Structures are given as structure tokens and as C-alpha cells.
Amino acid sequence: MNEPADRIATLQDKEREHQRSNYEAPLVHAMAVPTPVLAAPKTSEYNTLVPELCRFFGIIIRMFVEVQASHHTPHFHAYYQEHVAVYGIEPVELLAGALPKRQQRLVEAWAELHQAELVADWDRLQTGHKALPIAPLT
User: Fold this and answer.
1) What pTM value is reported for the model?
2) Whole-angstrom Cα distance, residue 32 to residue 108?
3) Strands, DSSP E only, in 82-130?
4) 97-138, pLDDT tens digit by residue?
5) How many CA atoms lie within 13 A of 4 on its CB side?
6) What are the phi and psi torsion angles at 57 (to 5°)?
């Protein structure tokens, strides 16, 4: 048995169970992306599976890790207070959830500026490597 892969699979199952228990899940573009009711948990396991890429103006940007498994279109998660949104990378577009208008515009501007870095981090995470931090808006 591959213990690290089994541990990652167990952590992914825990995250999916957390999402099922704390989110309402509408379908978006034939892909189940939860509409958050609560902010993301702050556990070390969660931080391992959904590492933080950037933080600016109270917004936290994270990207989900799913090593050697098919995943949805490349995307990232943006958190602001109790709001959560999921954005596609190519093109930068809101896939699910919602942020206040000002924060939505900031996230979209940031993502457009760092689109190549987001794609690179997506590729790194999906192949089991650590994501590199991305510069914030200043």
C-alpha cells in the first residue's frame, strides 16, 4: 500500500464530507461546486489539501490539491469574511459562490494579472508538488 497516497485520499474524503455537511451544493457547468454557508475550516489537514496562495485586502486565495486524480477545470477559491467564491483560471470567471462586488473585482483583477502563475500552481499541485506563493495586490 502507498501510505502517503492513502493519507491524501483519506484527507480528501474528510474534506468532501465537510463540504457535504456544511454547504448547499448546486450544480454549475455540470460540475458540483458548493455554495458555501460557512467559512472554510482552519485545520492543518485542510491547509495541506487547500494551500493558501495569496492574501490581500482581507481576501484569501486557495487552490485544492487532488494528486493523480481527475479534477474539475483549473480553478481557485477566494474567501472573504463569511463569503466564498470559486473562480476558473482560463478564462478568469466566477464559477460558484459570491463575494461582495468590490472584493469580486479585486479577485478578478488579481487573477488576470497572475493568470500564468495560477496555471503553474494548478499544474504543480495536481502533480503532487507544493504551490508557490503569488504576490498580492498592493
Assistant:
1) 0.65
2) 22
3) 83-88, 93-97
4) 999 999 999 999 999 999 999 999 999 988 888 999 999 998
5) 6
6) 45, 40
